[in-house]
Amino acid sequence: MALSCALATYPAPSSFSRRCRTLRRRSAAPRALSCDFSAYPAHSFVPEVAEAVDSLYSEFREVDNLVAHNSTRVLKAFQNARVGSHHFGGCTGYGHDEGGGREALDNLFAEIVGAESAIVRSQFFSGTHAITCALFAFLRPGDELLAVAGAPYDTLEEVIGIRNSSQTGSLKDFGIAYREVPLAEDGGLDWDALATAVRPQTKCALIQRSCGYSWRQSLSVLDIQRAIEIIKRQNLDCMIMVDNCYGEFVERSEPPMVGADLIAGSLIKNPGGTIAPCGGYVAGRKIWVEAAAGRLSAPGLGVECGSTSGDIMRAFFQGIFLAPQMVGEAIKGSLLVAEVMASKGYKVQPLPRHPRHDTVQAVQLGSRDLLISFCEAVQRCSPIGSFIKPTAGFTPGYASEVIFADGTFINGSTSEMSCDGPLREPFTVFCQGGTHWTQWAFVLGEVLRSIEKKTDERSSPYARVNGV
């Protein structure tokens, strides 16, 4: 049943063919095994993709080494936390008697990311929710929040209060000021501006690791370490909060290992390993993790309460264990997307074969039609909802129309293969995830066909005459 994929990629050895013929002669029911290779295409990938795959051998091997390193430290954390099957049970009501699973999960996650403490919960329903709890752990009326990597991701704008603030409980509503340090011309951090940006009232510096919906470089852990050192030299009491979404397991270390006070993210992104059905995390210094937990639940309850239904705990443990491998496949997919789309003349960020600091690959398509066509192609090649046509629309938390392609087993999971983008200039699509890099290899063939078709339509005599 899984034979066709392998046969399409690798030549069938003559001994295997002879074995198939022998089995057919011996079998009492010949229809039980078919070795009709003509039923499958001679080549799995379109030529542009096949050429890119061949050229990326050394980069893929480097990713495999990263996966091996991170998988080793994850396994060690599981062993140190003495995880057993008794930790997989759910709990009801207040969740007081949940069998120690929460504590084991928190402890192993804290060790993995190099933090004093962590809270990993199904009650975090998005990365934005977890980040918000972390920000409210630090900030009080009269304090200032400083974003050091330019404008934050769209869904944080209403949290901060820089868009649609109308007494809904934003930071602005609580009297918390906000400033940001614009990015440098090259899309990286403006180190000169950052060196004088921190004020005495700056209580928290927000570092967004991934590019979000901006055309900028994602930050390496070394970049984050340098930024922390610069910030702390100006104000030792300024706390460092890292939006770690899409960055987990992409490098060999995590921000708490270089001085971040808190990090936060979503379990339906990298650390859930495509298995976790929901949830998020906050990790870092114990005093601030407990403060974030008080925001999630209530002061005094902190990490001690919260029911977990069904088999979610097992999925959390298993997802974290698989996460380094799944992230590795996503990185390979992003390398492939960059290589193929750049070869077709499109601007990409990161550039082909450049180091990866998150699992997001941005492609600047330049038109609304091409962005929609790209997302439609991804949806057609998805395992779930392949028959659905993505439609751009307004989504809670976003400033403009957004189109999503996410035919995923977990609703909204960006650790599985997905892409999305805001319907605004310069019409950039952001690709992420993938349980195996070959998903993107197949998708890219469909993307190239869709873009070629759309380009032909726009250049037809009818289109030129009618201004289409």
UniProtKB/TrEMBL annotation:
It comes from the Eukaryota. Pfam families: Met_gamma_lyase. This is Aminotransferase class I/classII domain-containing protein. SUPFAM superfamilies: PLP-dependent transferases (SSF53383). InterPro entries: Met_g_lyase_put, PyrdxlP-dep_Trfase, PyrdxlP-dep_Trfase_major. It comes from Asparagus officinalis (Garden asparagus).
